[in-house]
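Database export, one record per block. Field names are fixed; values are copied verbatim from the stored entry.
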Amino acid sequence: MREGAAESANEAVKKFLSFDIVSRENAKIKYVKKLVINDNFRKRERCFVAEGLRLCYDAFLSSVLIDEIYYTDEAAQKFSEKIGELIDYAGRAYCVPADILREISDTKTPQGVVCVCEKLDKPFSLNTISSVNKIIVLENIQDPRNLGTILRTAEALGVGFVVMSKGCCDVYNPKVLRGSMGAAFRVKTFFADEICDAIKSLKESEFKVLAAVPDDSASLITDVNLNGRTAIAIGNEGNGLTCGVVDVCDQVVTIPMHGRAESLNAAIAAGILMWEMMREVGG
């Protein structure tokens, strides 16, 4: 580590109000730890935790409000410039020992920086998506890694909107945030209390809604016309879509598969379906 960079990190810490926390029994450490592990607590507090330099800095670049940053001396020296920017941007900064930071970490090898952020105000509704033509509907996706990957793929492919049932895992789960590589900060989402009602609303807005199922009798997604306003519903990892959702959709579709595979991982299936849907747009 260059001496000048280390001095820069120290100056950044001195310039902005920063406090030391040395006990894992500190109330703030307990608060952050609860935000990491408890979905309901995150919902009630309307806050979430971003961990790792890349994700924290992505939150900053995405204009997410950062209330607090917790960092180690080692991180401040290693990532001096970006840690300094985060300290400048955050409401409060706390320097903590590495063992204390591990208490509020959700990873095996923490990078030494954790931010407490305010949940994004996403007032999107199904009545405000007149400019959106392609939508993914997710029912009861419960693996946070799957949800994170789906959001990341949706952003990469340009899917305009993601509708999620209340049975989906929390989009601010630390594993979802990491899996999405920050896409959760930017992808437009709508959380539906009643997913069938949401699908009916899409149909009223002239969306053709397709139900993705692992069924040989369903239409192959490669043979379906996906032009125009289209939404594809994808179900739970183990059980797929509920019968109620399938019944309210316009058509059932499936991904052509070979060999003895009966189904695909939900995130992989979603990626293929989104690619097919957006390929039509590109063509």
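Remark 1: Residues 266-282 form the longest helix (17 residues).
Remark 2: The radius of gyration is 21 Å.
End of record.
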